[in-house]
Specification:
The chain is mainly alpha-helical. The chain contains seven helices and three strands, in the order ααααβααββα. The mean pLDDT is 93.
Length: 122
């Protein structure tokens, strides 16, 4: 970064705006919710898990189908699905010897769609 660009990123004075700060403080997200959100973003910060979720946002799938879609082993996919299930992002159901996974609700799908829109903006 050039010197002139650095100067644009920093205030030339040290002053706070009490009215704005008070308004923002009253509307801030509670600390525990911020922690929970950060944990969710950590989980979503893995390309394999995002690929799995993108597939599950289209259709319920079994482990073998997911593994074939993302070109990974069943055991590697099962490990990722275990993390997603423990954090209530996906749900599973057993049908005979096959376990099917689906999104737990529409929230993560909405988040993925919003992230996709953002990543496609210029």
């Amino acid at each position: 970064m050039k010197k002139s660009e650095e100067a644009d990123d920093t205030c030339d004075v040290s002053v706070t705006h009490a009215d704005v700060l008070n308004d923002v403080r009253s509307k801030m997200i509670e600390a525990q919710h911020i922690i929970n959100m950060a944990e969710l973003f950590k989980i979503l910060g893995d390309t394999t898990r995002v690929s799995i979720l993108a597939a599950l946002s289209v259709s319920e799938l079994c482990v073998c189908d997911i593994a074939a879609l993302v070109s990974m082993s069943n055991s590697a996919i099962s490990h990722q699905l275990r993390i997603l299930k423990q954090t209530h992002i996906v749900r599973s159901r057993r049908e005979g010897k096959t376990v099917y996974y689906r999104m737990a609700d529409g929230h993560i799908t909405q988040l993925l769609n919003t992230a996709l829109e953002h990543s496609c903006e210029e």
